[in-house]
Amino acid sequence: MSTQQLERSIGLRLVIVIVVGNIIGSGVYKKIAPMAAELHSSGWVLVCWLLAGIISLFGALSNAEVAGLLANTGGEYSYYQRIYNRFFAFMFGWSLFAVIQTAAISSLAYVFAQSLHSIVPLPPVLTAWADVHVAGLFYPFADFNVKLTAIVLIVVLTLLNNLGLKAGTGFGTAILLLVFAGILLIILFGLSSQLDRLNTISLVPPAGEPITLSAIFTAMMSAFWAYQGWATVGYIGGEVRDAHRNIPRGISIGVLFIIGLYLLVNLTYLLLLSVPELIEVHQLGNRIAAIEAMRSLWGDAGAVFISVLILISTLGCTNATILASCRTYYAMALEGRFFRSVARLNRFHVPARSLLFQAVWASLLVLSGTFDQLTDMIIFAVFIFYGATTLGVFILRRTLPDAPRPYKVWGYPVVPGLVILFCAGLILNTFFSHPREAVMGLVLILTGVPMYLWFTRTRRATPEPRLEQER
């Protein structure tokens, strides 16, 4: 039997699960420390979490209008073909593969492995090769026991998602419930025990230094990693029932829920740890703020509890990212703009070859850098395309004025306009505050130019094959 049709098996509940599951990962536990180091003010840390949430919500609302109008498998890749052109759509899809989604999988799996190592020390592997490097920048075999564990996780979750979309989302739902229970326990016991310290939250830095706009952008860059992932549900638009309604609703509900959750849990961290203690956590590099906060509350038992929770959270977010991301490469391959074998579905109606390509590259990225290098590079790259999607709201209002829109962005044109301005500001600030990550991200994006030319030439030279379902 020959078929290339994805099944529309996902309703609103699973859309929300995928949105939230793609967002909650490592950032909620780690990123408060670099934000404190940048701002030196507990009050401004919370302000930046709120601002990042609002910008993410505005971006999500803008994305929801585009998604509601153009819902299809591939997310922004499909949208950009209608809004801009095939080249720009390809550059986005290639950027997902080269850096945005695969590096997200790598960094999440890496934190999972670090958390596992903190609970059950992993045996050393290839220690004699630890000093092997590439141009003095990359040390692929340093901490290889942790990196190997991350790679094994990517492989195992890829195999799980080969069994079908419901298998992947069912697994993600179960993990998400455990994560919610753990975070709510932290908020409940942490806040209730520290209510008398609420007056320590202040917008004034201890030394009285002014808070600069660059510091705010840099701190929000850390927060954006924790909010990253809400747009991923668009990649599986072809598998969502009543996608034109359920995708906008699912994105909006999911992001609003996350904003409230993040504000509460980060307030808890700030009540349990002072800003100088958070700065020390950041400077040491090998510690996680949430673990130290819970250690101060419940001792070593608290540290073990939060380590297990981080383990579960990153496991769920890695699974959700693997599940959704590969659908874009599948959509590209159907058009002859990615490796042709990726366009095949297995007997579970899953793009198995796309999952395989994604797993291989994500595993290589595990060997390439540190967690913060990967996440900063991701945020730089992804905000280029967040801005492009939001600009699409204005373009589609002009080019398709009478098209049915299940959802129209609230506050148009102010809300999408603010998102575009913010994206431009964050991109420019990254070149000054994190030039290495900005350049690396830009280089990986630009590798898409020769790949586009190659795929286009191959597509013209090769007859269109009859793609069979894998058995």
Topology:
Blueprint: H1 12-23, H2 27-30, H3 32-39, H4 42-70, H5 76-83, H6 86-119, H7 144-161, H8 165-193, H9 213-227, H10 243-272, H11 275-284, H12 289-334, H13 352-366, H14 371-399, H15 414-433, H16 435-446, H17 448-461
Helix pairs in contact: 1-8, 1-10, 1-12, 3-4, 3-9, 3-11, 4-9, 4-10, 4-14, 4-15, 5-6, 5-14, 6-7, 6-12, 6-13, 6-14, 6-16, 6-17, 7-12, 7-13, 8-10, 8-12, 9-14, 9-15, 10-12, 12-13, 14-15, 14-16, 15-16
Describe the model.
71% of the residues lie in helices and 0% in strands. The chain has 471 residues and is mainly alpha-helical. The protein has a single domain, classed as Up-down Bundle (Amino acid/polyamine transporter I). α6 (86-119) packs across α7 (144-161), α6 (86-119) crosses α17 and α9 packs across α14. Keywords: Membrane, Transmembrane, Transmembrane helix.
